[in-house]
Amino acid sequence: MSKKENQQSSAKDKEKGLNSHTANGEDQFLTTNQGARINDDQNTLKAGQRGPSIMEDFHFREKMTHFDHERIPERVVHARGAGAHGYFEAYENMGEYTKAGFLQEAGTQTPVFVRFSTVAGSKGSTDLARDVRGFAVKFYTQEGNFDLVGNNMPVFFIQDAVKFPDLIHSVKPEPHNGIPQAASAHDTFWDFISLMPESTHMVMWVMSDRAIPRSFSMMEGFGIHTFRFINSEGKPHFVKFHWKPKLGVNSVTWDEAQKISGNDPDFLRRDLWQSIEDGNYPEFELGVQLVSEEDEHKFDFDLLDPTKIIPEELVPVKIIGKMVLNRNPANFFAETEQVAFHPGHLVPGIDFSNDPLLQGRLFSYTDTQLIRLGGPNFHEIPINRPVTPVHNNQRDGHMRQTINAGQSSYHPNQTGGGCPFQAAMHEGGYAHYAEPVSGNKTKERSKSFHDHYSQAKLFYNSQTEVEKKHIANALKFELGKVSMPAIQERMIAQLQEVDMDLADEVAKHIGVETPVKLDNELNQSIPADGNPEDFQSGPASPSIEKSAALSMEHITTDSIQGRNIAVLVAEGINIDSIEKLQQKAKSEGAKITIIAPTLGKIKTMDNQSIDIQKTLHSTASVLFDALYLPKGTKSDELLSKTPAAVLFVEEMFKHCKAIGMDDMGSLLWRSTRSAQLVDNNENASEGIVLNGEIDQFIKAVANYRFWKREEAGDLPV
């Protein structure tokens, strides 16, 4: 198409209200909404390569503002969430590192509100989507609100906030057909990821079982970014925040996740609510990794890069307090939906770093609340109000609730006696850390951000064999849903940089030959600084080869708190072992659910009666953490002839969960293919507890999974 023809076509498209890019897609340059061509869409404008972002970056502000206002009133991201009230208690005086008041004395308790969420799906999506989980905590301190707004993974997909709208647009339902919901297994997501090598580390986390947690109370939380602690003398330390769950880190399998989504899409939300109602309060310990300013550059990665962790072997996590969630919201909408978090809500003693993703979030969150909650007064909604008095010169605006007396709405003033006054630092006034800044205004990215594969390798190498298998299976599923071979090839090329065996296994499954060599210009990733000749993928190997903290299998507990144990019964059951199991489970914070073919009451073998809580047709094995089969000749015979009961047992076995029974092998158990696998393979017997050994069964429940069974063969259920 000639230039003249293109101009005529664009004019006609404008008359029709069409976007000319959509109409023909040829010879198009990326522009602002005002038509100015964009030279760099990969980086925000910064003061120096590693300096803070600059507000005059009109392209970033226009792009982010448009993104933040795309949908109302639902959150664009983190739309589906669950919340809880609680408190944070400090373990020690952290005055050596920070002057934050809530960290100055052991035993100090600070009210908190926490919101857990998925990222990609809408409010109506399932809890069990493969996704990052939001982990946001609002501390109502005596110095004002402090929001620690993080995720259950310590890194993110992108290094610069200007790419956030692109990331989310790619993972959301595709715009031409609105499909799929709350899922990354489609062309646009993997197209974007395959062109952004900086995402490789995060892809490893999202393809791991971390992306499908068993419970909100069984997942870690991270602040993601590097922040600063500032003490009363003004001395800084870089800090990364960690939440460590008391109950360990556990997940569901992908097969379970899909089935749970059909049986109970509110599974995680319900679990959090019920745990608090039952008095099994979720607990998390807060840990920090502290790095002195002098040691900022001692690592082979950049502390400002949000796609990197500080391995705990290099900087141990110091535990400084605990959080207990002990009260459910009184009203879901008023609290969980209207709570407004913002990483810019700080207290004296905590400050930012120049992480370009964090710097962009400082603009985006307030902008989002303006459209989502109707205007600038969202801080007056009860769930968002600080516990300290608020005094300033802000007035009016949509939904204003405060009635300010007097004629002064400005500062300085004499009409109001000069009030409210500025607070000096010794009076608790917030002052930003006086970090020296120099450099040209530029849209470059520091070369210290160019290593995209070493920590992806570190994460993968730190996984157990079964965890590696699950990552491979997740990639097979996700990339198997991609329809464009070029996207699949680019992703296999990325995986080759992480682990050649992993790349080969996934490639074989989706029909891509390895090794992949990308020659086509369209297959080249966009370099971080816009110059392909200067692009480097970074070191070939991580600074350390393995980190135990990165494997879920190494984050264990002997607690069964919050676990739900299924007990299958029918007419003629023996109640003795059930009562013993109930007493033991209750004392340790676990729940027993009695399941039978029908509801109501059934007669036991000694002519008593037992209440049935669920039927085989109203529940499913994937909703439970373990299974117990009490004895009873009549009951056993009835259940062995009930296909739903047989399936229930087989699924429990397939998902590698603990199974206990009163004798050496009930008729129901012998009726399953699981029993045949146990007979033929010693590995398959792991986690099968016989002869009514309740204490041994409880230990097996705490262990949760017995992965050796996967080597014994897969049941087609």
TrEMBL record:
UniProt xrefs under PROSITE patterns: CATALASE_1, CATALASE_2, CATALASE_3
UniProt keyword Chloroplast, yes or no: no
Catalytic class of the enzyme: oxidoreductase
Named cofactor requirement(s): heme
Stretches for region Disordered: 1-52, 523-543
Coiled coil: none
SUPFAM superfamilies for this protein: Class I glutamine amidotransferase-like, Heme-dependent catalase-like
Residues at the catalytic site: 78, 151
Biased composition (Polar residues): 19-46
EC id: 1.11.1.6
UniProt feature, compositional bias: Basic and acidic residues: 1-18
Family stated for the protein in its record: Belongs to the catalase family. HPII subfamily.
Protein name in the entry: Catalase
Lineage: Bacteria, Pseudomonadati, Bacteroidota, Cytophagia, Cytophagales
Gene: katE
